[in-house]
């Protein structure tokens, strides 16, 4: 995902008077800008940085959704809407089966050690942003066990 697409979609949501959608996309734009400022590249923001910021926002909204009390259906609906909007911009994540196949194919020599910490260290560097960390951790634990 690139920053221009996010901005264009935000403007389109404003023109269509879709307040909730605009706010969700605006939070993504803000998160990306903050990440870019922290990394010192305000002008030319790489797509990988945009994807990382989107995944981080998606995770935050998912946590809000999961911790929201059942009695607050209004909040739950708002968080679900935000989650759905942000999920459309998130890069596709690998399935548990794809993660397992990838690890077995690319990290066979490290897998042979059965050292979970060593395997996670090697795998996370290459798979960060391509798959959920929990899925990777579960898959490595399964392969070591």
Distance between the termini: 37 Å
How much helix is in the residues?
Answer: over 70%
Biggest sheet character: none
Shape: globular
Low-confidence stretches: none
Number of strands: 0
Strand content is under 5%
Number of helices: 8
Series of H and E elements: HHHHHHHH
Radius of gyration: 18 Å
**Mean of the pLDDT scores?**
89
Which structural class should the secondary elements be placed in? mainly alpha
Concise summary:
The protein is mainly alpha-helical.
Protein model, in words:
By secondary structure, the protein is mainly alpha-helical. The protein is built from eight helices and no strands. Helix 1 (3-15) runs antiparallel to helix 2, helix 2 crosses helix 4 and helix 7 (116-127) runs antiparallel to helix 8 (133-144). The longest helix has 21 residues, at 19-39. The radius of gyration is 18 Å and the shape is globular. 17% of the residues are buried. The model has no long low-confidence stretch (mean pLDDT 89).
Helix and strand layout, with pairings?
Elements: H1 3-15, H2 19-39, H3 47-67, H4 73-89, H5 96-106, H6 108-111, H7 116-127, H8 133-144
Helix pairs in contact: 1-2, 2-3, 2-4, 3-4, 5-8, 7-8
């Amino acid at each position: 995902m690139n920053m221009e697409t996010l901005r264009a979609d935000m403007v389109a949501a404003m023109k269509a008077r879709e307040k909730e959608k605009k706010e969700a996309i605006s939070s993504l734009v803000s998160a990306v800008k903050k990440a870019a400022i922290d990394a010192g590249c305000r002008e030319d923001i790489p797509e990988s940085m945009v994807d990382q910021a989107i995944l981080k926002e998606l995770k935050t909204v998912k946590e809000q959704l999961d911790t929201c009390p059942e009695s607050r259906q209004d909040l739950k609906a708002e968080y679900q809407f935000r989650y759905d909007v942000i999920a459309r911009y998130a890069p596709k994540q690998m399935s548990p089966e794809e993660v397992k196949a990838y690890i077995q194919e690319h990290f066979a020599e490290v897998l042979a050690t059965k050292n979970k910490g060593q395997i996670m260290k090697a795998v996370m560097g290459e798979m960060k942003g391509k798959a959920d960390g929990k899925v990777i951790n579960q898959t490595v634990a399964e392969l070591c066990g």
